[in-house]
């Protein structure tokens, strides 16, 4: 058993090294300047681009030129923060992020499809939504500031984002594939408290595993400290969303399906990760639902982690698969109908992760 664990750990380490080599090939020579990076460490605290969340989009990669691997990682992180921040801003306040926080020099500037304020029935959940929205905007501004401190020419524009709650929205497509609604039904994340939490759950665990997976690829100690700080904030958010869904599913009359739907979303995310290997047959099990079975009883599962209570990691390729809502090695789709604006996308293979 111990021997198998050692081999599994070695295989994971080799996978990380292989991905790092891909980053270095992209990056070329040179090291990012560290001036002004403390800005990121301190972070803790209608547009109408109508799209379809098809899982087989037409590839439209965005050339970005040579950048360091650390900056490429931050660019990917900024794409994810744009997505989360816009969702929470609309849900909590009914408005987009300020334009000054969205523009850059890399990639095509895209708009947001969908989004509106949630009519929360629970003032506590509404308060959580406002706090998380403020955190995510702070993450956006901090990442933009740190990339600017290295090279203003590498700050990415916000890409086109689909957070629509209608029939052609990315949320509906994901909900149908996860089986939490029927094939002809729609999923509106702004309908009520439960749908808002389920939509937030779809994003939050992905952000945590993304930062966790990127950490071994970061060269600069200052970048690493900064990423760890944002990872911690995202983990707080994710734990809160999981806890609220579990509470709702166990205590709120008529909301027991909050648990089953959250668990189905978790299974769907895992289905987009890819398959395992001989030593790691459960490599695609990088996620867990909000409940688990202990001694025959269903109990809360607030922290999705391995047997050592260590949070899971996802590679940049797996993160793109979930964001694009496809198992294929696509360059756009789902929540990013025209793709993400970063240097990492150009590294994606033409194979299939299924």
TrEMBL record:
PROSITE patterns: TAT
Ranges where the record places region Disordered: 45-66
InterPro entries in the cross-refs: Ferritin-like_SF, Pigment-catalase-like, TAT_signal, TAT_signal_bac_arc
A matching Pfam family: Ferritin_2
Name listed for the protein in its UniProt record: Ferritin-like domain-containing protein
């Amino acid at each position: 058993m111990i021997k198998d664990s050692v081999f599994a750990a070695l295989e994971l380490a080799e996978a990380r090294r292989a991905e790092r080599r891909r980053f270095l090939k992209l990056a070329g020579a040179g090291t990012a300047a560290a001036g002004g990076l403390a800005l990121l460490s301190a972070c803790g605290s209608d547009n109408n681009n109508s799209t379809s969340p098809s899982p087989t989009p037409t590839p439209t990669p965005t050339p970005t030129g040579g950048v360091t691997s650390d900056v490429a990682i931050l660019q990917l992180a900024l794409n994810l923060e744009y997505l989360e921040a816009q969702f929470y801003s609309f849900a909590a306040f009914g408005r987009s992020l300020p334009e000054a926080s969205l523009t850059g020099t890399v990639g095509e500037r895209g708009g947001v499809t969908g989004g509106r304020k949630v009519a929360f029935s629970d003032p506590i959940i509404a308060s959580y939504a406002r706090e998380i929205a403020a955190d995510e905007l702070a993450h956006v501004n901090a990442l933009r500031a740190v990339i600017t401190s290295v090279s203003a020419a590498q700050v990415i524009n916000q890409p086109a984002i689909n957070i629509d709650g209608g029939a052609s929205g990315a949320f509906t497509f994901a909900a149908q594939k996860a089986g939490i609604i029927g094939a002809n039904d729609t999923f509106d994340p702004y309908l009520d408290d439960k749908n808002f939490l389920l939509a937030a759950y779809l994003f939050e665990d992905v952000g945590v595993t993304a930062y966790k997976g990127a950490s071994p690829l970061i060269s600069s100690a200052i970048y690493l400290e900064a990423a760890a700080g944002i990872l911690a904030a995202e983990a707080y958010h994710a734990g809160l969303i999981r806890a609220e869904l579990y509470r709702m599913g166990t205590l709120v009359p008529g909301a027991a399906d909050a648990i089953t739907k959250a668990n189905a979303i978790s299974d769907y995310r895992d289905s987009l990760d890819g398959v395992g290997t001989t030593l790691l047959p459960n490599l695609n099990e990088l996620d867990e639902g909000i409940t688990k079975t202990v001694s025959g009883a269903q109990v809360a599962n607030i922290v999705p982690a391995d047997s050592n209570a260590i949070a899971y990691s996802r590679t940049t390729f797996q993160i793109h698969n979930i964001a694009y809502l496809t198992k294929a090695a696509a360059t756009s789709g789902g929540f990013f109908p025209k793709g993400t604006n970063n240097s990492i996308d150009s590294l994606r293979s033409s194979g299939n992760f299924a």
